[in-house]
Amino acid sequence: MARKNVQTREGVYERIDRPGFWISWTDAQGRRKRRRTEANNITQAKAALAAEKARVEQAKTLGFNPPGEETFAEIADRFLTYQKARLTPDAYERERGIVANMLKPFFAGRIASVRRQDAQRFVTERSGKVAAETIKKELNVLKHLLKLAVEWEVIPINPAQGVKSPPVPAGRVRYLQPAELKVLLEACPDWLRPVVGLAVATGMRRGEVLKLRWMDVDLTNKRIMLPQTKNGSSRMVYLNEIALMVLTSLPQHDASAPMGKVFPDVTPEQVSMRFSRVCVAVKIADFRFHDLRHTAASWLRMKGADIHTVAMVLGHKDLRMTARYSHLSPGYMAEAMSKLDDAFGEIRHHSVTNKKALTGE
Protein backbone atom coordinates (compact mmCIF):
# COMPACT_ATOMS: atom_id res chain seq x y z
CA MET A 1 0.00 0.00 0.00
CA ALA A 2 1.41 3.39 -1.01
CA ARG A 3 2.41 5.77 1.73
CA LYS A 4 0.20 8.77 2.27
CA ASN A 5 1.07 12.15 3.63
CA VAL A 6 -0.12 11.92 7.20
CA GLN A 7 0.16 15.11 9.21
CA THR A 8 -1.26 16.22 12.53
CA ARG A 9 -1.17 19.80 13.81
CA GLU A 10 1.41 18.77 16.38
CA GLY A 11 3.06 15.42 16.05
CA VAL A 12 4.97 12.99 13.88
CA TYR A 13 4.12 12.33 10.24
CA GLU A 14 5.52 10.95 6.98
CA ARG A 15 5.63 12.39 3.47
CA ILE A 16 5.50 10.67 0.11
CA ASP A 17 7.74 13.16 -1.70
CA ARG A 18 10.47 13.22 0.97
CA PRO A 19 10.64 9.92 2.86
CA GLY A 20 11.45 9.87 6.54
CA PHE A 21 9.84 10.91 9.78
CA TRP A 22 8.81 14.54 10.05
CA ILE A 23 7.75 16.47 13.14
CA SER A 24 5.48 19.48 13.55
CA TRP A 25 5.25 21.80 16.56
CA THR A 26 4.57 25.39 17.63
CA ASP A 27 7.52 27.53 18.68
CA ALA A 28 7.70 30.06 21.53
CA GLN A 29 6.39 32.81 19.25
CA GLY A 30 3.38 30.75 18.18
CA ARG A 31 4.74 29.98 14.71
CA ARG A 32 4.29 26.61 13.02
CA LYS A 33 7.58 24.67 12.66
CA ARG A 34 8.20 21.54 10.63
CA ARG A 35 11.36 19.58 9.90
CA ARG A 36 12.60 16.21 8.80
CA THR A 37 14.25 14.17 11.55
CA GLU A 38 17.09 11.66 11.37
CA ALA A 39 14.88 9.12 13.18
CA ASN A 40 14.81 5.53 11.98
CA ASN A 41 11.53 4.70 13.69
CA ILE A 42 8.46 6.31 15.24
CA THR A 43 9.88 6.12 18.76
CA GLN A 44 12.98 8.13 17.83
CA ALA A 45 10.82 10.65 15.95
CA LYS A 46 8.63 11.15 19.03
CA ALA A 47 11.77 11.72 21.11
CA ALA A 48 12.90 14.40 18.64
CA LEU A 49 9.49 16.07 18.89
CA ALA A 50 9.66 15.98 22.69
CA ALA A 51 13.09 17.63 22.57
CA GLU A 52 11.76 20.46 20.38
CA LYS A 53 8.82 21.01 22.72
CA ALA A 54 11.21 21.11 25.68
CA ARG A 55 13.22 23.82 23.89
CA VAL A 56 10.01 25.80 23.35
CA GLU A 57 9.19 25.70 27.06
CA GLN A 58 12.76 26.70 27.91
CA ALA A 59 12.57 29.59 25.45
CA LYS A 60 9.34 30.81 27.04
CA THR A 61 11.01 30.71 30.44
CA LEU A 62 14.24 32.44 29.34
CA GLY A 63 12.64 34.89 26.92
CA PHE A 64 14.76 33.64 24.00
CA ASN A 65 15.61 30.38 22.29
CA PRO A 66 18.61 28.60 23.81
CA PRO A 67 21.40 27.61 21.41
CA GLY A 68 21.02 24.29 19.62
CA GLU A 69 23.51 21.47 19.23
CA GLU A 70 23.97 21.94 15.48
CA THR A 71 27.53 22.15 14.21
CA PHE A 72 28.77 25.04 12.09
CA ALA A 73 29.20 22.60 9.18
CA GLU A 74 25.54 21.51 9.39
CA ILE A 75 24.27 25.07 9.30
CA ALA A 76 26.77 25.91 6.56
CA ASP A 77 25.28 23.16 4.38
CA ARG A 78 21.78 24.44 5.11
CA PHE A 79 22.95 27.96 4.24
CA LEU A 80 24.30 26.79 0.87
CA THR A 81 21.03 25.04 0.07
CA TYR A 82 19.20 28.26 0.91
CA GLN A 83 21.56 30.36 -1.23
CA LYS A 84 21.55 28.04 -4.24
CA ALA A 85 17.93 28.92 -4.97
CA ARG A 86 18.67 32.65 -4.71
CA LEU A 87 21.98 33.21 -6.48
CA THR A 88 23.24 32.90 -10.03
CA PRO A 89 25.34 29.76 -10.63
CA ASP A 90 28.58 31.76 -10.68
CA ALA A 91 27.71 33.69 -7.50
CA TYR A 92 26.70 30.46 -5.77
CA GLU A 93 30.01 28.84 -6.69
CA ARG A 94 31.90 31.77 -5.20
CA GLU A 95 30.00 31.48 -1.93
CA ARG A 96 30.28 27.70 -1.89
CA GLY A 97 34.05 28.02 -2.25
CA ILE A 98 34.26 30.49 0.63
CA VAL A 99 32.15 28.29 2.89
CA ALA A 100 33.89 25.02 2.01
CA ASN A 101 37.48 26.23 1.89
CA MET A 102 37.58 29.01 4.48
CA LEU A 103 34.67 29.05 6.92
CA LYS A 104 34.07 25.35 7.60
CA PRO A 105 37.72 24.54 8.42
CA PHE A 106 38.08 27.59 10.67
CA PHE A 107 34.79 27.38 12.58
CA ALA A 108 34.78 23.69 13.48
CA GLY A 109 32.45 22.48 16.23
CA ARG A 110 29.08 23.74 17.41
CA ILE A 111 27.83 26.93 15.83
CA ALA A 112 26.64 28.06 19.27
CA SER A 113 30.29 28.08 20.36
CA VAL A 114 31.27 30.77 17.85
CA ARG A 115 32.07 34.02 19.63
CA ARG A 116 32.74 37.55 18.39
CA GLN A 117 36.45 37.09 19.12
CA ASP A 118 36.47 34.03 16.84
CA ALA A 119 35.15 36.13 13.95
CA GLN A 120 37.75 38.80 14.73
CA ARG A 121 40.49 36.16 14.84
CA PHE A 122 39.36 34.88 11.42
CA VAL A 123 39.78 38.38 9.97
CA THR A 124 43.17 38.79 11.64
CA GLU A 125 44.53 35.48 10.38
CA ARG A 126 43.33 36.15 6.83
CA SER A 127 44.94 39.60 6.83
CA GLY A 128 48.28 39.58 5.08
CA LYS A 129 47.42 36.37 3.23
CA VAL A 130 44.76 37.74 0.88
CA ALA A 131 43.54 41.13 -0.28
CA ALA A 132 41.29 43.25 1.92
CA GLU A 133 38.50 42.95 -0.66
CA THR A 134 38.66 39.14 -0.37
CA ILE A 135 38.47 39.30 3.44
CA LYS A 136 35.47 41.62 3.18
CA LYS A 137 33.64 39.14 0.92
CA GLU A 138 34.43 36.21 3.24
CA LEU A 139 33.31 38.14 6.32
CA ASN A 140 30.07 39.16 4.60
CA VAL A 141 29.31 35.51 3.85
CA LEU A 142 30.02 34.59 7.48
CA LYS A 143 27.74 37.37 8.74
CA HIS A 144 24.95 36.32 6.39
CA LEU A 145 25.27 32.67 7.44
CA LEU A 146 25.11 33.57 11.14
CA LYS A 147 22.23 35.98 10.54
CA LEU A 148 20.22 33.16 8.99
CA ALA A 149 21.17 30.90 11.89
CA VAL A 150 19.53 33.48 14.18
CA GLU A 151 16.41 33.54 11.97
CA TRP A 152 16.33 29.75 12.04
CA GLU A 153 16.50 29.97 15.85
CA VAL A 154 19.70 27.95 16.03
CA ILE A 155 21.57 30.70 17.92
CA PRO A 156 20.15 33.71 19.79
CA ILE A 157 22.47 36.41 18.41
CA ASN A 158 24.86 36.95 15.51
CA PRO A 159 28.37 36.96 17.04
CA ALA A 160 29.94 38.44 13.90
CA GLN A 161 27.68 41.48 13.88
CA GLY A 162 29.84 44.60 14.07
CA VAL A 163 33.10 42.82 13.26
CA LYS A 164 34.96 44.92 10.69
CA SER A 165 37.14 43.84 7.81
CA PRO A 166 40.39 45.66 6.95
CA PRO A 167 39.86 48.91 5.03
CA VAL A 168 39.52 48.25 1.32
CA PRO A 169 41.74 50.52 -0.81
CA ALA A 170 40.18 52.68 -3.48
CA GLY A 171 39.24 50.82 -6.63
CA ARG A 172 42.04 50.30 -9.09
CA VAL A 173 41.79 52.26 -12.35
CA ARG A 174 44.25 51.26 -15.06
CA TYR A 175 43.39 52.21 -18.62
CA LEU A 176 45.14 52.39 -21.98
CA GLN A 177 45.87 55.37 -24.17
CA PRO A 178 44.55 54.98 -27.74
CA ALA A 179 48.06 54.39 -29.11
CA GLU A 180 48.65 51.62 -26.55
CA LEU A 181 45.34 50.02 -27.43
CA LYS A 182 46.21 50.04 -31.13
CA VAL A 183 49.53 48.27 -30.45
CA LEU A 184 47.82 45.75 -28.18
CA LEU A 185 45.12 44.87 -30.71
CA GLU A 186 47.65 44.43 -33.51
CA ALA A 187 49.68 42.05 -31.34
CA CYS A 188 46.71 39.84 -30.48
CA PRO A 189 46.26 36.55 -32.35
CA ASP A 190 43.31 36.43 -34.74
CA TRP A 191 41.05 34.52 -32.34
CA LEU A 192 41.72 36.88 -29.41
CA ARG A 193 41.51 40.23 -31.24
CA PRO A 194 37.68 40.32 -31.57
CA VAL A 195 37.28 39.28 -27.92
CA VAL A 196 39.49 42.17 -26.82
CA GLY A 197 37.87 44.57 -29.29
CA LEU A 198 34.33 43.83 -28.10
CA ALA A 199 35.35 44.08 -24.45
CA VAL A 200 37.00 47.48 -24.78
CA ALA A 201 34.27 48.84 -27.08
CA THR A 202 31.41 47.94 -24.73
CA GLY A 203 32.86 47.68 -21.21
CA MET A 204 31.51 44.13 -20.93
CA ARG A 205 33.11 41.72 -18.46
CA ARG A 206 35.16 38.78 -19.71
CA GLY A 207 32.44 36.32 -18.69
CA GLU A 208 29.74 38.38 -20.40
CA VAL A 209 31.72 38.46 -23.65
CA LEU A 210 32.48 34.74 -23.66
CA LYS A 211 28.91 33.71 -22.73
CA LEU A 212 27.39 35.95 -25.40
CA ARG A 213 25.01 34.12 -27.76
CA TRP A 214 24.04 35.21 -31.25
CA MET A 215 20.38 35.21 -30.18
CA ASP A 216 21.25 38.01 -27.71
CA VAL A 217 22.78 40.19 -30.45
CA ASP A 218 20.50 42.65 -32.27
CA LEU A 219 22.62 44.16 -35.03
CA THR A 220 19.65 45.95 -36.59
CA ASN A 221 18.99 48.00 -33.47
CA LYS A 222 22.67 48.08 -32.46
CA ARG A 223 22.33 46.44 -29.07
CA ILE A 224 23.02 43.33 -27.03
CA MET A 225 20.75 41.93 -24.34
CA LEU A 226 22.66 40.29 -21.49
CA PRO A 227 20.02 38.08 -19.84
CA GLN A 228 21.95 37.58 -16.61
CA THR A 229 24.99 39.50 -15.41
CA LYS A 230 27.30 39.18 -12.41
CA ASN A 231 24.89 41.00 -10.10
CA GLY A 232 21.99 38.77 -11.16
CA SER A 233 20.08 41.26 -13.31
CA SER A 234 19.76 41.70 -17.07
CA ARG A 235 21.41 44.59 -18.92
CA MET A 236 21.13 46.20 -22.34
CA VAL A 237 24.45 46.98 -24.03
CA TYR A 238 24.34 49.49 -26.88
CA LEU A 239 26.80 49.02 -29.72
CA ASN A 240 29.08 51.67 -31.14
CA GLU A 241 30.76 51.43 -34.55
CA ILE A 242 33.78 49.52 -33.21
CA ALA A 243 31.57 46.90 -31.54
CA LEU A 244 29.47 46.55 -34.70
CA MET A 245 32.63 46.15 -36.77
CA VAL A 246 33.82 43.35 -34.48
CA LEU A 247 30.51 41.47 -34.57
CA THR A 248 29.96 41.78 -38.31
CA SER A 249 33.49 40.48 -38.94
CA LEU A 250 32.72 37.18 -37.20
CA PRO A 251 31.22 34.13 -38.90
CA GLN A 252 27.48 34.07 -38.24
CA HIS A 253 25.96 31.24 -36.26
CA ASP A 254 23.95 28.41 -37.78
CA ALA A 255 20.26 29.37 -37.90
CA SER A 256 19.43 25.94 -36.49
CA ALA A 257 21.49 26.65 -33.38
CA PRO A 258 20.17 29.92 -31.86
CA MET A 259 21.94 29.17 -28.59
CA GLY A 260 25.30 29.21 -30.37
CA LYS A 261 27.96 31.38 -28.77
CA VAL A 262 29.59 34.31 -30.52
CA PHE A 263 32.97 33.00 -29.34
CA PRO A 264 32.62 29.20 -29.24
CA ASP A 265 35.37 27.01 -27.82
CA VAL A 266 37.11 29.91 -26.09
CA THR A 267 37.62 29.57 -22.34
CA PRO A 268 38.22 32.32 -19.75
CA GLU A 269 41.58 30.75 -18.88
CA GLN A 270 42.72 30.81 -22.52
CA VAL A 271 41.78 34.48 -22.84
CA SER A 272 43.48 35.62 -19.63
CA MET A 273 46.66 33.64 -20.21
CA ARG A 274 47.14 34.68 -23.83
CA PHE A 275 46.15 38.29 -23.10
CA SER A 276 48.77 38.46 -20.35
CA ARG A 277 51.44 37.17 -22.73
CA VAL A 278 50.50 39.73 -25.37
CA CYS A 279 50.80 42.55 -22.81
CA VAL A 280 54.26 41.35 -21.84
CA ALA A 281 55.30 41.08 -25.49
CA VAL A 282 54.32 44.70 -26.27
CA LYS A 283 55.64 45.97 -22.90
CA ILE A 284 52.29 47.08 -21.46
CA ALA A 285 52.86 46.65 -17.74
CA ASP A 286 50.35 46.10 -14.94
CA PHE A 287 47.41 45.52 -17.27
CA ARG A 288 44.82 42.76 -17.01
CA PHE A 289 41.93 41.76 -19.25
CA HIS A 290 39.46 43.31 -16.78
CA ASP A 291 41.25 46.65 -17.26
CA LEU A 292 39.73 46.81 -20.74
CA ARG A 293 36.49 47.52 -18.89
CA HIS A 294 38.23 50.31 -16.99
CA THR A 295 39.53 51.65 -20.30
CA ALA A 296 36.01 51.90 -21.74
CA ALA A 297 34.68 53.60 -18.60
CA SER A 298 37.63 55.97 -18.30
CA TRP A 299 37.34 57.23 -21.87
CA LEU A 300 33.58 57.63 -21.55
CA ARG A 301 34.20 59.94 -18.58
CA MET A 302 37.00 61.83 -20.31
CA LYS A 303 34.69 62.43 -23.27
CA GLY A 304 32.05 63.94 -21.00
CA ALA A 305 29.69 61.07 -20.12
CA ASP A 306 28.17 61.62 -16.68
CA ILE A 307 28.68 59.12 -13.88
CA HIS A 308 25.12 57.78 -14.08
CA THR A 309 25.55 56.97 -17.76
CA VAL A 310 28.82 55.18 -17.09
CA ALA A 311 27.15 53.22 -14.29
CA MET A 312 24.40 52.11 -16.69
CA VAL A 313 26.95 51.10 -19.34
CA LEU A 314 28.94 49.02 -16.83
CA GLY A 315 25.88 47.63 -15.05
CA HIS A 316 26.83 49.05 -11.65
CA LYS A 317 23.98 49.13 -9.14
CA ASP A 318 26.06 51.08 -6.64
CA LEU A 319 27.40 54.46 -7.82
CA ARG A 320 30.32 54.08 -5.43
CA MET A 321 31.72 51.53 -7.89
CA THR A 322 31.62 54.12 -10.65
CA ALA A 323 32.88 57.03 -8.54
CA ARG A 324 36.48 55.88 -9.11
CA TYR A 325 36.27 57.46 -12.59
CA SER A 326 35.13 60.88 -11.34
CA HIS A 327 38.56 62.50 -11.49
CA LEU A 328 38.96 61.63 -15.17
CA SER A 329 36.59 64.30 -16.42
CA PRO A 330 37.82 67.67 -15.06
CA GLY A 331 36.44 69.53 -18.05
CA TYR A 332 33.00 68.04 -17.57
CA MET A 333 33.03 68.80 -13.82
CA ALA A 334 34.13 72.39 -14.50
CA GLU A 335 31.30 72.77 -16.99
CA ALA A 336 28.83 71.39 -14.45
CA MET A 337 30.01 73.83 -11.78
CA SER A 338 29.74 76.75 -14.20
CA LYS A 339 25.99 76.13 -14.31
CA LEU A 340 25.83 77.71 -10.84
CA ASP A 341 26.79 80.97 -12.53
CA ASP A 342 23.50 80.87 -14.43
CA ALA A 343 21.55 79.87 -11.34
CA PHE A 344 23.04 82.66 -9.21
CA GLY A 345 23.28 85.23 -11.99
CA GLU A 346 21.39 87.92 -10.12
CA ILE A 347 23.89 88.06 -7.27
CA ARG A 348 27.06 87.49 -9.29
CA HIS A 349 27.87 91.11 -10.14
CA HIS A 350 26.88 92.74 -6.90
CA SER A 351 26.51 90.67 -3.77
CA VAL A 352 29.59 88.49 -4.18
CA THR A 353 31.87 91.50 -4.62
CA ASN A 354 30.17 93.47 -1.87
CA LYS A 355 32.32 93.19 1.27
CA LYS A 356 29.41 94.08 3.53
CA ALA A 357 27.24 91.36 1.99
CA LEU A 358 30.00 88.79 2.49
CA THR A 359 31.17 89.71 5.98
CA GLY A 360 28.06 91.17 7.48
CA GLU A 361 29.98 94.31 8.53
Defining traits:
361 residues; mainly alpha; three-stranded antiparallel beta sheet
Please tell me about this protein's structure:
It is a single chain. The protein is mainly alpha-helical. 49% of the residues lie in helices and 7% in strands. The protein has helices at residues 42-62, 72-84, 89-106, 116-126, 132-151, 178-187, 193-202, 206-210, 241-248, 268-281, 291-302, 307-314, 319-322, 330-343, 345-348, 355-359; strands spanning 11-14, 21-26, 32-36, 217-218, 223-226, 235-238. It has a three-stranded antiparallel sheet with strand order 1-2-3, covered by helices on one side. Strands 4-5-6 form a three-stranded antiparallel sheet, with no helix packed on it. Helix 2 (72-84) packs antiparallel against helix 3 (89-106), helix 7 (193-202) packs antiparallel against helix 9 (241-248) and helix 11 packs antiparallel against helix 12. The longest helix has 21 residues, at 42-62. The relative contact order is 0.07. Residues 1-8 have low confidence and may be disordered.
Structural Rg: 29 Å
The overall strand count is 6
> How far from one another are the termini?
99 Å
Look at the structure and give the mean pLDDT: 82
Summarize, please.
The strands form two sheets. Strands 1-2-3 form a three-stranded antiparallel beta sheet, covered by helices on one side. A three-stranded antiparallel beta sheet has the order 4-5-6, with no helix packed on it.
Task: Outline the fold blueprint.
Layout: E1 11-14, E2 21-26, E3 32-36, H1 42-62, H2 72-84, H3 89-106, H4 116-126, H5 132-151, H6 178-187, H7 193-202, H8 206-210, E4 217-218, E5 223-226, E6 235-238, H9 241-248, H10 268-281, H11 291-302, H12 307-314, H13 319-322, H14 330-343, H15 345-348, H16 355-359
Antiparallel strand pairs: 1-2, 2-3, 4-5, 5-6
